[in-house]
Amino acid sequence: MTDITRDQLQDGSYEFLAIFLEGLPFIFLGTLVSGFLGTYLPRNAFEKVLPKNPILAIMASGLLGAVFPVCECAVVPVIRRLVKNGLPVSCALAYMLAAPIFNPVTAISTFKAFNDSYFVVGARLGMGYLIAVLVGIAILRVAHGRFLKPSAQAESGHEHHHPRNLNSAMNNSLRDFMDVGLYFTIGVILTSLLKTTWIDPTTDFWKGLTDNSILATPAMMGLAFFLSLCSTSDAFIAANIGNFSYAPKLAFMVFGPMMDAKLLFLYSTVFRWKFIIILLAALFVLTGGLSILAETVYENYWESAQP
Amino acid sequence: MMSALHTRLFGLLALCWGCALIYFYHSQRIQDYLAKDFHTLVLAGGIGIIVLGLYSLINPQEKKSSCDHEHKHDHDDDKGHSHDHDHGEEEHCGDCDHEHEHEGHGPVATYLLTLVPLIVAMNYTQDKLSNRGMAKKGLYEAPALNGLDAPAAFTREDLEKRVPKNEEGEFQLQLFAAYWAAGDREVQSIYEGLPVELEGRVAPEKIGNEAGDRMRIFRKIMSCCAADAQFVGVSMEFPDDAKRPAVDEWVKASGILTFETIDNKILPLLNVRAVVPTEEPYSEFLLRQ
Q1: pLDDT of amino acid A293
Q2: Same domain, residue pair B147 and B264
Q3: Residue B9 confidence (pLDDT) above 70
Q4: Alpha helix (H) residue ranges in chain A
Q5: Final residue belonging to a domain, choices B69, B92, B127
């Protein structure tokens, strides 16, 4: 075995275990919650809680992360079960995309990483929320069958009489844990492979992007996708990754928690692959565009307004 | 709904995952992978997963409910294809007259795709990155220049107040402070020529080491897990007659801190006075707060 292969095997194993050990307890927590929600939560319970106006309901769902902060790994099994229990998919999607960004833990870590910058925190959380709501609104009129996997669709047309007991809840949890755990592991394998073979932020290619105003933002979103970092820690990487301006760093911090290599597989437990690819493209364009807009606002208005 | 056999097999797999978490926690290998805040979570998660696994092994079947209908399953099964089929009564759950769709992978695929990578990774990991891996995470990089939201001003008085000195009167500076000073001209001017003592692990030097008289002292910084870790290092230049530490050794290196420009990048440099071995800390990670 060559030194490179041996090093890559060592580093890949190390990266795999780091993400696996960190993510698995959260996946378990998410699937435990989902299993019990699926068993004990009355169907269509959300109709009583959410605003009747669908757009207001989506906007309210996007804010739920501030009250129920969950990371991007744990949120997937939860919304999967909530959708089956009647939560409108547009609301679930808004919650799923916004929660990893629009929550107090992410806000504090971003604030610290960027030397107490209110602008970066505001721009990151605001963009995350806005994009999540826009995506939710965009799918409002689309038939669920076109993007939800059959197994994730709400059971409708009649009232089921599934037992509401511990046995059923544990059974649901185990099923969800196995499904989500499998895709999570595949995602972690892919991430580890890419990080140890292909992705190297220290190469001249990545460094050369620093001064390229056109390519820097999409490149940083690509990097966020492959690095698959946790939303609570990615701000520290973004702050120190190179001499990039605001737009690429914001794009890195907003796109990554919404779409990365491991999430791709986690999302596939809920959504059809075709929809996931469209979602990826939409998030890429929206995040990139809004990041550049935020930087323009900063340079032209925010900076000059500071004392 | 899963058959009793599938439930038991999945329960056994959950048991394996839970045991893996507990093993990493109990053996303290977890400290090489995760920040301390996450250690308890791994323990709790491991216990929870074991409980779920054991429960499923003991109670593999869900109680029958009032559903008595034809189930339509859409498996992406182990053979990689989808199929619909009816299950026997054992797997039915009620008395309704419609089709359900359940989806899931069989135990064989789940075992292969989850347990095999875990075993392979546990076999090949050295609980640390190779030098090549550390280089990709910034070991030989210059710090980003501080342009975005500069931190509050730092003065010589702050340094005197906050940083303790050793018996030789050298500042016991955190290694990352020496590193990041290279990205901040104001702090750099305070640290230039400062007698310091730095603590860290030793790596070979790859920058400005044509004469072969340099090594690198470094630390890991992380927030959550090793995947987000970054490595920060300071070059150490030794006098001709000085004894060199071994690669991977933990040391306290004393000397004069200065800064040099290589390929238009400002890098910290320690002109070594003395290097003494030191004990490896409980966790070599420095946490971002």
Answers
A1: 92
A2: yes
A3: yes
A4: 3-40, 46-49, 54-62, 64-67, 72-84, 89-98, 104-113, 118-138, 166-197, 204-208, 216-227, 234-240, 246-258, 261-267, 273-297, 303-305
A5: B127
| Shortest Cα distance, chain A CAs vs residue B170, angstroms | 28
* Contacting A residues, span 53-112, partner chain B, CB-CB under 8 Å: 109, 112
Element (H, E) at B185: helix B185-191
Instruction: Report the chain B residue with the minimal C-alpha distance to residue A150.
Output: B101
The pTM (predicted TM-score) of the whole model is: 0.80
- Are the beta carbons of B132 and A11 closer than 8 angstroms? yes
The residue segments making up the domain with residue B104 are 4-127
pLDDT of residue A77: 87
Residue labelled with tokens 């737009």: A247
Which position has the token pair 């808004």?
Answer: A94
Q: Which distant-in-sequence residues (6+ apart) come within 8 Å of A62 by Cβ? A: A94, A95, A97, A98, A102, A129, A132, A133, A136
For residue A116 the two structure tokens come to 């107490």
Distance between A165 CA and the closest CA of chain B, angstroms = 9
| CB pair distance less than 8 Å for A109 and B223 | yes
Q: Within the 50-109 window of chain B, which residues sit less than 8 Å (CB to CB) from chain A? A: 52-53, 55-56, 59, 61-63, 65-67, 74, 93-96, 98, 100-105, 109
Among residues B86, B110, B127, the one where a domain terminates is B127
ipTM: 0.81
Radius of gyration for the alpha carbons in chain B, expressed in angstroms and rounded: 28
Residues 230-269 of B with CB under 8 A from A: 230
